[in-house]
Design brief:
It is a single chain. The chain is an alpha+beta fold. The protein is built from 15 helices and eight strands. It has helices at about 5-20, 20-30, 45-55, 65-70, 105-115, 125-135, 150, 190-200, 220-235, 245-255, 265, 275-285, 295-305, 315-325, 330-355, and strands spanning about 75-85, 90-95, 120, 140-145, 170-175, 175-180, 190, 210. The strands form two sheets. A six-stranded antiparallel sheet has the order 3-8-4-5-6-7. It has a two-stranded antiparallel ribbon with strand order 1-2. Helix 3 (about 45-55) packs across helix 4 (about 65-70) and helix 10 packs antiparallel against helix 15 (about 330-355). The N and C termini lie far apart (about 60 Å).
């Protein structure tokens, strides 16, 4: 029998060989049987990819992941360095999507802008489990927000227990197994008890779930796109140094500052946790290994292409490569310089977008 550690090693080896995402490589190795009536489309951003596939399953077409991503507000910016004394660990939290600090906000914005009817559900464990069972039995896909540690297949260390997670779509059940769409291209399942436990783990969005109730009708994509474009410009023109573009400038300063409490030379003076923090940065900016799609700038460029602003898209693809370059750096000074350049580049790119949106 393959242990979890052995399976993880096999998944990583397949990723290195094929270039697949973690969930796709995992699904190939575990080999679940396909379920009729659901099309696995893959994707980059868990929120936008999940909503797009759910809409398509309800006969609401004409949308792509990139369009849904942009309609929900597109990209964002955010940086926080957490210190956990209990585990003597430090974690870097990066926000690359609009309203990243609010779990369901951009999904709700996208559906509202598209005028799609939907239902949110939150309740105690027993009621939530009954509700989920009822929808799966009725053939309705449900978006849920499980804790990544408790769901199991990301194989995270215990220190990540309760840190939350991104949305996945539960679209069918077979016995005690549930089929999940987490941007995988071949089917895989998790035990229902694991899913229920993971859904209930984080108090702030315990048992949060979404089902789309609309079906088979046309939508005004152009109007929704305009709202999304205005949103991303407004969001990234704010002055917040935690939740908008100034976050990159603050982070750049923290790479070389020696006095601030959260400065990297001070926080990592003893070397403890540095490897994990650098790994967190690398995985956070990389679209293949990153849990939530990496820096998301290529997806935003695709949105601009599809929204009729293709002249602005190449710059965001260049910026995406600048983020990937940051993921390969280990020297604080080099990282600080790169982050300063990223702040300038994104500030300028948003100003150019604002000029054509206004």
């Amino acid at each position: 029998m393959t242990s979890r550690k052995q399976l993880k090693a096999q998944v990583r080896a397949r990723m290195a060989k094929t270039g697949e995402r973690y969930t796709t490589a995992l699904a190939h190795l575990t080999g679940a049987t396909p379920v009729g009536g659901w099309t696995l489309r893959g994707g980059t951003d868990p929120d936008a990819a999940g909503v797009t596939t759910m809409l398509a399953a309800r006969g609401i077409t004409g949308l792509t992941e990139a369009l849904v991503f942009g309609i929900g507000g597109g990209i964002g910016a955010g940086y926080i360095l957490w210190e956990f004394k209990q585990h003597n660990s430090r974690h870097v939290t990066l926000g690359f999507c609009n309203s990243w600090q609010y779990v369901t906000r951009r999904t709700e914005k996208a559906l509202d802008r598209l005028g799609v009817e939907h239902e949110w559900h939150r309740s105690g464990n027993k009621a939530a489990q009954t509700w989920l069972t009822g929808h799966l039995d009725a053939g309705n896909a449900v978006m849920v927000w499980p804790d990544r540690y408790q769901i199991g297949y990301w194989d995270l260390p215990e220190e990540f227990d309760g840190h939350g997670g991104h949305p996945v779509v539960a679209y069918a059940a077979a016995g005690d197994q549930v089929y999940l769409d987490d941007r995988n291209l071949v089917p895989f399942t998790v035990a229902r008890e694991d899913l229920d436990r993971a859904n209930a783990r984080v108090g702030t969005w315990k048992n949060q779930a979404l089902v789309i109730t609309d079906s088979d009708r046309a939508i005004d994509v152009e109007a929704a796109v305009r709202e999304g474009l205005r949103d991303v410009v407004e969001h990234l023109s704010q002055k917040s140094d935690s939740f908008s573009l100034p976050a990159w400038r603050k982070w750049a300063k923290m790479m070389t500052d020696t006095k601030a409490a959260k400065a990297w030379p001070k926080v990592f003076a003893d070397g403890q946790g540095l490897d994990g923090a650098l790994r967190g940065v690398r995985e956070g900016v990389d679209g293949r290994y990153g849990v939530t799609g990496g820096n998301l700038r290529p997806l935003f460029a695709d949105f601009l292409d599809e929204a009729g602003h293709s002249g602005l898209a190449p710059r965001w693809r260049e910026i995406a490569e600048m983020w990937h370059a940051l993921g390969g750096m280990t020297e604080f000074a080099d990282m600080g310089k790169q982050l300063s350049e990223l702040h300038e580049a994104e500030t300028d790119a948003i100003a150019r977008l604002k000029a054509v949106v206004d």
